[in-house]
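Question: Send over one sample?
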Amino acid sequence: RASSPQEAPDKTTRISIEFEKGDPVKVKNHSDGSEITGPLELFQYLNEIGGTNGIGRLDMVESRYIGMKSRACYETPAANIIKAAHRDLEGICMDRVVMKYRDSLIEEYSDQNIQWIWSLRTSNFNKRQ
């Protein structure tokens, strides 16, 4: 569980994340010297230290595919840490044009997934009628 930023420790936790072919493969905690490998262990560890440090709380209003608004609250410390680290890496490795193209693909991919899920649900509903 992610703690609130007000409850987070006043001490900095310095970590580095090693990527191979775009995937996180190792986390090193420079504060205590620990190293974590393995996808599940890495994600669990980042959830733990991120949650302790008040990282990963998200409260948002989403526009649903069917046109209604929905409020959603998420706690994703590990995902937020990995995404921020990967974006920093992309900023070093990619040029502006490639990053703009990547961003357009993210939106297009998301839209297609939502449409696929919605059409799957409606087609299953129609089969039951």
Summary: Residues 94 and 100 are 10 Å apart (CA to CA). The longest helix spans residues 96-128.
